[in-house]
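Why does residue order matter? Because the sequence determines the fold. Keep that principle in mind as you read this record.
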Amino acid sequence: MKPTSARIILCAFCASFILTLTPCFSKPVELRCEYLVNPLGIDAARPRFSWRLDDPAQGAGQVAYQIWVGSDSSGLLQGRALVWNSLKVVSNTTLLTYAGPALQAFSKYYWAIASWGIDGQRTVSAVANFETGMQKASNWKGAWISDTRDVNLKPAPYFRKTFDTNKSIRSARAYIAVAGLYELSINGQAIGNHRLDPMYTRFDRRTMYVTHDVTKQAQKGKNAIGVLLGNGWYNHQSTAVWFFHEAPWRNRPTFCLDLRITYSDGSVETISSGKDWKTALSPIIFNSIYTAEHYDARLEQPNWNQPNFDDAKWKTVILRPAPSTNLVAQVMHPIRDVEEIKAKSMRKINDTTYLYDLGRNISGVVSLRVSGAAGTRIRLRHTERLNAEGRSDMSNIDVHYRPTDNTDPFQTDIFILSGRGEERFMPRFNYKGFQYVEVSSNQAITLSENSLKGYFMHSDLPVLGKVQSSSSTLDKIWFATNNSYLSNLFGYPTDCPQREKNGWTGDAHIASETGLYNFDGITVYEKWLADHRDEQQPNGVLPSIVPTSGWGYEWGNGPDWTSTIAIIPWNVYLFYGDSKLLEDCYDNIKRYVDAISDRSQGHLTTWGLGDWVPVKSKAPVELTSSIYYYVDATILAKTAQLLNKKANYTTYSALATKIKDAINAKYLNRETGVYGNGTQTEMSAPLHWGVVPAELQTKVAANLAQRVKADGAHLDVGLLGTKTILNALSDNGYADLAYQIAAQEDFPSWGWWIKNGATTLYENWPIDAQSDISMNHIMFGEIGAWYYKALGGIKPDPAVPGFKNILLNPHFVKGLDRFQASFKTPQGELVSSWERTAQGVSYKVVVPPNSSASLSLELGPGQKVWSGGQVLVSEGKNGFVQNLRAGSYVYLIK
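Structure:
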């Protein structure tokens, strides 16, 4: 029976307080270790634990916790086999770091949390677990092996090994590190549901390994391990402008594997990669993560990964040096085939050509089922648009490809049939960006609408946020923004899934808040910032694309782009209340700020790309880059204060002030309140990033609003301006005008794309642009975060990060009748919802347990705030202010 306690429930409209006895549900739930559910193979010496409270009661919160970590699940709460018992700690934190004795490699640990609620009741969570991996390089037993050193050999290699066991198996774990990509199988069974493992890194500085539970696949008796290797970013054979094929690490793919078997008697045996493995070429006759995959089904070797396969004709592997000495566990949400998409339509052009339309733009691959004669050659051409004749058109996405011959067509898979009945093809080591697939063959084939399916691939992040409104255009923009964000998340954030697949830094920091409001992205961002640390030069300079094969250190990498090193760790800190990424990147942020200082003159810098792809007006590069220089210095100073680095706090606070003063001295006309020529980016960027002197903010904001009205309430910004224009207006009294911009449906606007059929965001405002018009770009995606910040009014409180206190300031904008934003914070789900009714605006908010909120409502002339049938006293100068505890609240503004 659950304990009960008295709860006071606030009924906002009936003005009554009801004392009820309700069950105490203040229970820790959703336990995570390193932000994952029961992770395998972690290397963190001090892993982080987090949880949420399940308690819908008003004012619910945690006042104390206790954590147990041990090696015995059944005895954990009885104190048996404990390795760490925190005892009772008076604190409301739901995020803590392991502080027990050193964890052992290859060990499974169990943990649970006890939480004391505000009513003094103690509840205990279910038991969770995590498992350590290698922990250190010396624990690896396997050798790095490959089939050849020939980087130009096209077919992907198979590897296999058989072994016998004569004992009962308790558990089995496969640890596999790869330079390239892989698929692993045990006794013919594919292991796991990940795609494109391991993630792309600077291979010669950091190589990732993945841990798999293969207990169910390993068997007593004879076993076979199979490994198929793909090139990935390690051995890039396609040519483009980005130097992929000239990467300093480039080589034939290689791997190292340890299969660690624990028997029922407690003994351990490790089956490792080495010279006793055998190798042969596979039917994948070409694979490029940048272009496509070619498969010749006539070359298949059935049962190649089964124990009884005859491998007498296979050759012996070769040993290879490790690509790097830094092997780290891949502890992050993996790439998966997240969604299967049936073709919206299929059009038969002739007996050898069919055109499929998925109905939406995605990143991923397709599967094709087809029958035909042996040797039939099928081409699957993936494009984002059609030409005037209704055929596939890739002229907008192949502009950076530099083919050396015609054997590697862009985004075009090639499938050669074996002639053995119905056959299925689906690429293993590639993904593309597309909506249309033109299937053509050198012989007549028969296809139906169901012959082809699409698979939306991306890093499979848990969904945190959701937006709904009375505007179908607004909702479609939000859907398109999320589609573009996910289409560009493959273990690192990219610009587009077709023409580049590059980790452009500017695109990523502009869209980082959009990602954090909508998805649980911390594991991807932590990995990507480690990539930054790998790529940073000794002088502090970063490349504009991360990871990089060498391109990007000399173009596009000024502070307006590579401020990722500061902005993303700071945003992660605000959203999760976790300072680890800031700590990990602190020295790198400092070196980068110092690098900008070395290039600056008079505390201003011209280093940068500026407001990329503007509508018509472009702000001076010196203004926008100097603003980001200021942002970086400010974040550095705040981080120094957080980490108790007092001297650095003083130094960089002073630097930030000098940069701010220099910007205002050159670009701000104090009499008129206008920056530069008064364009939208010139006005909104100083406002959004806190450069405008406090006494002039109202004047500058009014001038910005005037300029926007003169532009017909349409955008006149580029990439940097899309980050600032809506926020600067909403945060300074012009939310209605910001909404007018966001809701526009003619050129230039997000809605213009939607009205013209977009299901993702584009790379350029004109939809008929002859270049720079990828149709799946995330760089203009800040609007997805603006929904939460302005219409829902949801922001983290820098003084109490991780949404322990929520800043709530919703804007009930004219022209919108209904809006709801829900967002699962680290404490629980927050809901901010409003609707126009005959009585006024009804505003409802749900504050998660263990959180508080600072609510501010802006009021018009004569407006009052009602709750429970009573007028609430306004505590703010120009509106209503109230501090809220956890729970549900309803207000009427009339």
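The chain has 15 helices and 47 strands.
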